[in-house]
Amino acid sequence: xxxSRRAWRLAAALAAxxxxxxxxxxxxxxxxxxxxxxCKSKAAEPLNxxxxxxxxxxxxxxxxxxxxxxxxxxxxxxxxxxxEHWDGSKWKVIPSPNPSGAKNSDLNxxxxxxxxxxxxxxxxDSATSFQTRPLILHWxxxxxxxxxxxxxxxxxxxxxxxxxxxxxxxxxxxxxKNKFETPLALHFAGGHWSQATLPDFGTVHLRxxxxxxAKDxxxxxxxxxxxxxxxxLILHWxxxAWTRTPTPSPGFIPELSSVVASSPKNALAVGLVQPExxxxxPIRTLALHWNGTVWTRVPSANPANVKIEAVLNGVxxxxxxxxxxxxxxxxxSLIEQWNGKRFALVKGSIPGADLxxxxxxxxxxxxxxxxKGAKTYVLHFTK
Length: 383
Fold this sequence. Notes:
Strand order of the largest sheet: 1-28-27-26
Largest sheet: 4 strands, antiparallel
């Protein structure tokens, strides 16, 4: 079972035994039980099928139409896909397919183009071939169905998906090639998925993808260097080819876990940076901004007295000059707000929690999703 979209990073939140829904003062952020404008009643926490479940990605169409995806442990202790829907009055588990014979199936990301076109991606372990294959599901307004897609390697992983205009979509991740992790980008156009050609940089992890149009797509992650260090990586699709865009790579291990764009001239990418290779310096938050010409590092906040790590896992725009990012700092939830120049801490945190993702349609309708112990919760920003 995944404990984070950052597989190499330990999540201290798993030690907590119970679910917490807490109000964070002065933020406009309430627990999932907070009233949701325009909906029938108050929200409940997502449902908890099986013995362990984790929802790691969220897509928001309206205050009364929210989707969350992840996985849960079934009665036979196998991981199964999990998709839940908020309709304004309750959360409901929506049936989602698992490949026949799969030992474990996970969903890592969800993106909604419309109420009748939603994509979710992840991977599953084959019970017969000892391989990991990419998994893509689609919602047509009535059912989730599995989609055919390329599987170029022995071990293939999809970490993120974004729906673009004109009915297209992109999914990114990596696959194993000659014992090295190679970037993977799949493109949905013309009614089918195909593998895109990417520049060859060696060992690469693509963690995130976003788009403002079919000709303006960003993918972000990191490149592993032979000395054990990492460089940040951001690729751009202009409708014809993927090219690398220069990015700052501070510290020994900087890596990007989320990217979002409001226009071709305004994008943000967030993640983490290990400043020194000394085994003692805490991991810090990292944020980059695209102004239409160049990516630059911008100030991001770190709570006082962080001893192990402070990381940002997700980011979403509120408006052109405002955004929120979420993550975790030493086992406490981390929320930061962008004012067009820098990220600042939002007061309050939830002990034992890790926030994985954030999405929304406006300042008064943003949702963050995370976990505490063996359960998942949602937080709702109302201003």
